[in-house]
Fold these 2 entries.
Entry 1:
Amino acid sequence: MKLNGSHQLLVYAVDVNLLGESVHTVKENTETSVFASKENELEVYADKTKHMIMSRDQNAGRSYNMKIDTSSFERVE
């Protein structure tokens, strides 16, 4: 799957890691994956999905909530 012009999808059995250089990029990559999954009749379970922001800037994404379509993904440390 091509996200933001490059291949950035890592899949391990039922785990998927989406990477990006910014919170905005990760959200876009997540939206692309969720909608592509729906097109292929796969479902992303929001209650089992978590997101984590790793950055040198300790305040990066601190108050950021990941909401895609009608689903919200819990932020973890």
Entry 2:
Amino acid sequence: MIQKRLRKSSMSGLLKDVAFITILAIFFFVVVGKFGGYIGDYITKMSCKSIDEKYVQGKHPGDGVCIRSKGNVDIKK
């Protein structure tokens, strides 16, 4: 009798934990999908500064690139 109650309570707790992790993962993927381009642009912009290149913003979020200047010619990565 105690074992049956213990199994039910631990199974209920496990289902709650799985449901919580699932909701958390869905929320994370929605946020990253929505703001991932902006995060990528920010990282690209910071890396351009660290390697002495110029950051050029793209048409859409996530399309930004670093441009290296050699003489009068710009070389895109």
